Amino acid sequence: MSDWSQGSGPSGGAPEGAAWSGHEGARAFAAVEAATDWLLGYPFVLRELAGHIGAGQVLVDYGCGPGKVADHAARVLGARVLGADTSPEMLDLARASATAVAEYHLVEDGRVTDLPDGCADAVMCNHVLASLPTEDALLGVFTEIRRLLRPDAPLVLLTTDPACSGTEYASLRIGEPGESYAPGDPVTVRLRRTDGSWQEMRNHAWPVGLHPALLERARFRDVVQHRPSVDEALAVAAPDLVAARPWSAERAAPPLVITTALAAR
Ligand SMILES: C[S@@+](CC[C@H](N)C(=O)[O-])C[C@H]1O[C@@H](n2cnc3c(N)ncnc32)[C@H](O)[C@@H]1O
Question: Could you please report the per-residue DSSP string of 115-132?
Answer without folding.
Answer: S-TT-BSEEEEES-GGG-
